[in-house]
Amino acid sequence: MAEVQAPDYRVEPAHLPEQAGAIVELWSQALGYAERRPLKLDWFYMRHPSGQPCLLLLHHGGRVVGVTGLGSRPLSWLGRELDGALMGDFAVDSHHRTLFPALMLQRAALEQGLARHGLLYGFPNAKSLPVVRRAGYQVLPGMGRYARALRSEAYLPSSWPQAARRALGLVADWALSLRHAAGLRRPGRALQASWLEGPDERFDQLWARARQALGDCVVGRRDLAFLRWRFEARAWHRTQLLVLVDARSQALAGYAACEVEGSAMHVRDLLVERPSAELAAQLLRLAARQAQAQGLRSLSMQCAGPAWLLAGLRTAGLRLREAGAQPMILALAPDTPAPLAQACWYLTGADSDE
Q1: Sign for the pseudo-dihedral over CA of 352, 220, 215, 299
Q2: Which residues, other chains included, contact 262 with Cβ-Cβ below 8 Å and sequence gap of 6+?
Q3: Mean pLDDT across the stretch 280-306?
Q4: DSSP-based three-state secondary structure for 48
């Protein structure tokens, strides 16, 4: 791999585990959550299911002052397999946060990433967008944030008397629960709902059906190996899988990966066997019912996708709270189809690096 050079700075691939300490220290200083950083390094960069990702380090004066990562992410589109890579964990030392070091690191990631992969994508924070644009990435809308209030009292004006807020909140919660409970009782195929701690072999079969049904979307692989790795229990989060199961065959009709954080339940991923707003809504309504039973205040999901998926969110009571809440950057190799930038992307939290 060619070394990228410039006065006083150079970009080189990391050597693990020898440079793990320097990487973790920089991440902790620049990104926070120091207790997570060694675990993230082990999970994403040492045990990735699609081969060891690439970490690029920016050096200055013998010190590591910048880092960014690229992890393989196989994608499908129109029956074609795409060799994608997910960018993440970009950080620059606080004493080197001028345009040049950050731009140099991003351009090195772009050049070296596209030498290995057909496309690069990622979800940078808003402060990084000017740098990545200048480096040559396209900036796309990415994922919107959808949410449904489960405890209406928390959203009523704080100036109202507490007793009135509580009474009105209970009435509103009761009315909404009745409305969505009616949706759960609709006749049709016999499906049973259950919660799993982790995926099993049926998820490979579900992915095979869903991948074919989502053929006109750019969608990341969601097979058993990926899901086991992506949603394995880690110190900073625990995910449970809500599944819909055919009562006769025991085949999966869909799943929602749910994580509780604070007073909210977040749906980190959702997949159904065929394009069906009803199936998507069924999973989200069941997740909301469980969240309500746990006393949580809201159900939320960050995603982008086809019209039927967004219709399912609306049917389940989730409303768009923030369009483009998580912008996406994209870069394509010369032999990768340019229309990918305008294609429908099926994106959820499972497609990010956290």
Answers
A1: negative
A2: none
A3: 96
A4: coil
Question: pLDDT tens digit string along 136-161?
Answer: 999 999 999 999 999 755 655 666 66
Kindly list the distances between the CA atom of residue 217 and the CA atoms of 75, 87, 213, 258, 346, in Å, as whole numbers in the listed order. Answer: 10, 20, 9, 23, 6
CATH superfamily entry for domain 145-327: Gcn5-related N-acetyltransferase (GNAT) (3.40.630.30)
Cα–Cα distance for residue pair 112/116, rounded to 1 Å:
7
Model pLDDT, residue 3 = 45
Residue type, 75: L
**Residue recorded with tokens 């819909």:** 244
114-126, pLDDT tens digit by residue?
999 999 999 998 8
**Cα distance between residue 257 and residue 268, in whole Å:** 5
Tokens of 345: 């992307």
Assign residue 250 a region: left if phi > 0, alpha if psi is -120 to 50, beta otherwise? left
Q: What is the pLDDT of residues 59-113, one digit of tens each?
A: 998 899 999 999 999 999 999 999 999 999 999 998 888 889 999 999 999 999 9
Tell me what the pLDDT averaged over the chain comes to: 89
User: Residue 145 corresponds to which tokens in the numbers above?
Assistant: 């944030």
Distances (CA, A) of 69 to 20, 44, 104, 110, 218: 13, 10, 14, 11, 22
Name the nearest CA neighbour of 215 among 308, 344, 118.
Answer: 344
What are 228's two structure tokens?
């086991």
Residues near 291 by beta carbon (within 8 Å), at least 6 away in sequence:
150, 258, 260, 264, 265, 298, 299
Contact by Cβ (8 Å): 174, 151: no
**Domain 4-136 architecture:** 3-Layer(aba) Sandwich (3.40)
